[in-house]
Amino acid sequence: MSTKIVGIVGMGPAGLMAGTILLEQGIEVHFFDHKKAAGRKFLVAGHGGFNLTHSESIELFQKKYNHSFIKKAFLQFNNEDWRNWLQSKLGIETFVGSSGKIFPLKGIKPIEVLSNWLEKIISLGGKFNYSHKLIDFSENEAVFSHNGNDIDFSFDYLVLALGGASWKKTGSTGEWKELLDSKNIECTNFVSSNSGFEIEDWHKMADMEGQTLKNTDTSFGLISRKGDVVISSYGLEGTPVYFVNKEFRNSPSDYLYIDLKPTKSQEEIIEILLKSKNTTEGLKNLNLSKTAIQLLKKWTTKEDYSDVKILSSIIKKMSFKPISLRPIDEVISTIGGISMESITEDFKLKNYPTIYCCGEMLDWDAPTGGYLIQGCVSSGFAVGKAISKQE
Q1: 139 pLDDT higher than 60
Q2: 8 A C-beta contact, residue 153 and residue 142
Q3: Cα–Cα dist 225/99, whole Å
Q4: What angle do CA 258, 263, 264 make, to 5 degrees?
Q5: Torsion of CA 44, 46, 48, 51, to 10 degrees
Q6: What does the pLDDT average to over 280-293?
Q7: Which of 85, 191, 262, 333 is most exposed, with the fewest beta carbons within 10 Å of its own?
């Protein structure tokens, strides 16, 4: 049995996975978290449906990540590996939803997944230390603040899995960036990701808040995504909107376009509108939803609404001018954090060869739909394997 001692700082899915892999190799592992409980963001993420990963092919899946290190980690521990691991190690069975997303079987709540995982770690000998905030570290020692006291912890290897900067109420604050900056570890500023768009001149749409545009094709720049778009008090939300965030960050002066009827060409739309008694009946004959019709009435001028050719072009390419993404604390995830230039491809800090990093604290990006949590557990798995191979 190995005599290595490893500290895991952060008890989200990335840290828990790294620690579990190490414990299975007989390595002594101590977990630390600055909150009073583990996996706070993990639990909150499950409130709207606990999406654990996606069922698409490995080839397509890895393309969702914007950095080669995360792509390679995913190939080490892919979506099928994660599903099998959940079932074999934690007793959590999963199913594929209609959209291809993967969830625990109906009736299994996020707290059950987390509890089973923590029980597994306890059975392997893992040691938990809650309310421990990392305040300093060197190559072989970390210092934590706990109940007003400084606690020293000596290690052979340390894993930082401190999360990003969104949803502060879960403990994902990004405050650790100050400490890493002071250690000359290159970090990039946090920026919103998987965020809704604030839309210019949106005040007139306020009374439509909460309504959904079903089965749209949303595009920005060169990328597009089919799905449902939600109308909010400030602009537009939903998976297709989140998916094009990257394009907006690259070209913030461009427009967002929504095809309200992607199953029909503009010519087919014109034909149906011309055969109808009036515009509103024509839109109903197109099987547009009440929400889509209301949006068209409010967003277009009376002249454009009455002109079949212009209206058909708007239906196929309705334009919106995004002003900004939402504030960081409101969004699902962030980009920014530890620069990928600061680590090796097995997630080791170049300046501190005994310290590894994984999860959302690294500067990588992926859309919602199971890709974020998969990236976290895959990077945690890669870190666990990398440390276990060290002499």
Answers
A1: yes
A2: yes
A3: 13
A4: 90
A5: 140
A6: 95
A7: 262
pLDDT tens-digit readout, 33-66:
999 999 888 887 756 678 999 999 999 999 999 9
Q: Say which residue the tokens 């965030």 belong to.
A: 245
Give the gyration radius of the chain's Cα atoms: 24
Query: Between 106 and 167, where is the model more confident?
Result: 106
Tokens 């923590």 belong to which residue?
A: 118
Start and end residues for every CATH 3.50.50.60 domain found in the chain: 5-192+330-388
Asked if the model's pLDDT at residue 152 lies above 90, the reply is yes
Listed in sequence order, the residues at least 6 apart from 34 whose beta carbon sits closer than 8 Å to its beta carbon are 131, 132, 133, 134, 171
Q: Could you give the CA distance from residue 338 to residue 162 in angstroms, rounded to a whole number?
A: 11
| CATH topology for the 5-192+330-388 domain | FAD/NAD(P)-binding domain (3.50.50)
Residue 170 is given by DSSP the state G
**DSSP-assigned states of every residue in 334-386:** EEEEE-GGGB-TTSBBSS-TTEEE-GGGBS----SSSHHHHHHHHHHHHHHHH
Cβ(60)–Cβ(131) under 8 Å?
A: no
User: Which pLDDT does position 179 carry in this prediction?
Assistant: 97
Measured CA to CA in angstroms, residue 315 lies from 174, 206, 208, 255, 263 at distances of 42, 21, 18, 15, 12
β-pairing, 157-160 vs 256-259, is: unpaired
Contact 163, 360 (CB under 8 A): yes
Percent of the chain with pLDDT over 90: 91
**204, 174, 387, 183: which is closest to 300 by C-alpha?**
204
Q: Report helix, strand or coil for 17.
A: helix
